[in-house]
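ok, trying the design again with the full structure, not the truncated one.
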């Protein structure tokens, strides 16, 4: 990559700061959906909110892993050019 393309790449610290926000939003949305399902289809153990929250956590961790791999890939490319 040339210098112009390297300048257009996002700052890795900015991407790292967004990760907890994205994680919180994903987990909140899934737990809210599970809570809605528990209200719509009542049961004794609130199983929908538990399952939905765990699915949200799994998706959030997958998203973090994917983003960190991309950040490391870009960082390695920058190091190779210098």
């Amino acid at each position: 990559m040339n210098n112009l393309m390297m300048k257009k790449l996002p700052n890795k610290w900015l991407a790292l700061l967004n990760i907890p926000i994205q994680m919180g939003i994903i987990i909140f949305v899934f737990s809210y959906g599970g809570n809605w399902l528990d209200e719509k289809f009542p049961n004794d153990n609130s199983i929908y909110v538990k399952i939905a929250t765990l699915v949200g956590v799994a998706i959030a961790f997958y998203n973090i892993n994917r983003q960190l791999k991309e950040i490391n890939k870009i960082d390695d490319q920058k190091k190779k050019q210098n």
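Keeping the full-length input from now on. The CA atoms of residues 35 and 49 lie 5 Å apart.
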